[in-house]
Design brief:
The chain is α/β, with parallel strands linked by helices and 207 residues long. It has one domain: Maf protein. 31% of the residues lie in helices and 24% in strands. The longest helix has 19 residues. Inosinic acid (IMP) binds next to strand 3.
């Protein structure tokens, strides 16, 4: 089998997202070694189901949906903020913790109010990536441990960034540059594992 690094036989992978920010982040890490397609690129406008109760289940549901319907090798990710004092909430419900409008401000306000009188602020972001190649699945996990701040700090990023501080920093995620955040973030770590795997199977010439 040809290597995907050969210029005439690039491996083609669909990333089950239309989030341009995530797409750019992964393209940057992969370089030119694979042809990365978005849902737009394969003309997929479906509302891809995410009905599982775990990050692992949701990531797999998305990647298999694309593989089964479009016959393309692909990967999908799912992320959650897990707060120890809230028994792992918001977890798989992170995007819509405060309601279906998916408001980051309301989600953060809800977390801050639930933790108002709680000392234990330990939390982590966890990303799971499900990669499906020729019908077989492998998953990669990325975790960043940290804590929930007492109030919002910073303006960059998205989601819960203003109230999360990683253990290896004294800035909230929303006070860091995107580059610095990516170096330690859950998604950055999961993506790096995916990239390492793709490079390794390319070297083994198993695809
Ligand atoms: P998704 O699975 O990447 O769509 O993430 C689900 C939800 O988790 C998002 O809507 C955000 O609320 C939250 N989230 C995911 N990644 C981050 C991050 O890097 N910073 C802050 N919040 C995030």
């Amino acid at each position: 089998m040809p290597k995907f690094t050969d210029c005439f036989s690039l491996m083609r992978l669909v990333f089950a997202t239309n989030n341009l920010h995530k797409l750019q982040e992964i393209k940057h890490l992969l370089g030119d070694s694979i042809e990365l397609l978005s849902l737009n690129d394969i003309n997929c406008t479906d509302d891809i189901p995410e009905n599982q109760e775990t990050l692992e289940g949701n990531a797999a549901e998305k990647s298999f949906y694309i593989y089964n319907k479009f016959g393309q090798n692909c990967f999908a990710d799912d992320t959650g903020l897990e707060i120890d004092a809230l028994n792992g909430e918001p977890g798989v419900y992170s995007a819509r913790y405060a309601g279906e409008e998916r408001s980051a401000e309301l989600n953060m306000d809800l977390v801050l109010s639930k933790l108002a009188k709680i000392k234990n602020r330990k939390a982590r972001f966890r990303t799971v990536i499900s990669l499906v190649i020729d019908g077989g699945e492998i998953q990669f996990e990325g975790i960043v441990e940290g804590r929930i701040l007492k109030e919002k700090r910073g303006v960059t990023g998205f989601g819960y960034d203003p109230i999360f501080m990683a253990d290896e920093s004294n800035l909230s995620f929303a006070e860091m540059t995107m580059n610095d955040k990516n170096k330690i973030s859950h998604r950055g770590r999961a993506i790096q594992k995916l990239v390492d795997y793709l490079i390794q199977i390319d070297g083994d010439e198993t695809i």
